[in-house]
Amino acid sequence: MYDNILIPTDGSEAAQNAVAQAVDLAEQYDATVHALYVVDVDATNLTLGTEQVDRIRQGRIDEMPEVKAEADDATGYVADAAAARGVSVEEHVTAGSPSRAIRNFVESNDIDLVVMGSHGRSGLSRVVLGSVAEKVLRRTRVPVLVVDLHEADE
């Protein structure tokens, strides 16, 4: 049923909450987990400047130790959780708009299921900030399991 499961991660607590669900499903279906970190070029442009963003867009993340370390930490968390359960994992880093980059990855890599965390924002904060999880859910053609950050608290 599921051969390739994508876990988009930014290293946040919300993303980490989704990892256990994804790894459990991958173990049950003998699937490969794909950990994807997306360098958000819009957010990065504000903090790093256009020269750094150009490096990111060209795939030269290795030249940016802080960005590379953040990406490695985020995907490494997923890789460690998967390895602990004997699940095959691949780590990926890309740049762009997070929701678009996730959708492109799904289409280009034969992904069967996306498992991702959500901060569970509602009301005005959701309208102002947008929701990557919602955009992925609405615009992809594969099942998307959204794990709410606040579910772990209940």
Summarize the structure.
This protein has 154 residues and is of the alpha/beta class. It has a single domain, classed as Rossmann fold. It contains seven helices and five strands; from the N terminus they run E-H-E-H-H-H-E-H-E-H-H-E.
Entry keywords:
Rossmann fold, 51% helix, alpha/beta, 5-stranded parallel sheet
Describe the structure.
The longest helix is centred in the middle third of the chain and has 20 residues, at 65-84. It is built from seven helices and five strands. By secondary structure, the protein is of the alpha/beta class. The relative contact order is 0.22. The protein has a single domain, classed as Rossmann fold. Helices cover 51% and strands 21% of the residues. This is Nucleotide-binding universal stress protein, UspA family.
